[in-house]
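Bench notes, bay 3.
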Amino acid sequence: SGGLVAGTRAGFAYSTWPLMGDSFIPRGLYAGTPAWLDMFEDITTVQFNHRIFAYLLVILIGVFATLVYRSGAGGHARLAVVLLVLALAVQVVLGISTLLLHVPVPLAAAHQGGAMLLLTAMLFAGHVVRKQ
């Protein structure tokens, strides 16, 4: 989803957070014909989907971290989860900062790099937790 935001330059469309302009769900969402094409071409829909994906990741990683901690998993699993939550926090801060500061290139590049860090942390945490 981040590649679509960068490719369509959707990050420039709404530089507000948590609202997109004056509402959480912006006007004109999926208004194109055909509507499914908006997921790839309409900057409002692309940015909205990116935000929803980020919110979903925060929820899912939060649930995962809670379950791992409550399970009594060992030190390596707990460390992997801490690293995952840290990577998520960095990515969220980078994403919101990039948006609010009107997409400065170094910050946008750091946000894209943060996506790779977060993916790596997710894979690592999944691997370590599964082994235990």
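Next record in the batch:
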Amino acid sequence: MTNRIVACLCAAWCDTCNAYRAHFERVAAASPQFAFRWIDIEDEADLLGDIDVENFPTVLVADDGEVLFAGTLRPDPAHLQRVIDVVASGAALAPPENVDAWRALARRLAGIRADRD
């Protein structure tokens, strides 16, 4: 089993995040090959490590702890679906800045998912 994860890093006080959440959940329902996780950056600040989220929504896509995409997306489900489609096709995306911090988050999330399975 692979540990394909899509995580959205948002905040409860962010109106954009609140509006985006329903879109994120619809994409999640249509993409069972990934585990989707909504992360409130304030409620789960310890999970983020050295990641500094500056814009919303910020999305992480990882497979077995390796970062496939990390960055801010327009709050449009088509953009998230496009990233998922590109990743699922095996195409390479440019690594994010601070890739080591993103990789550490991806591995923490993979560990959490493994604990839940």
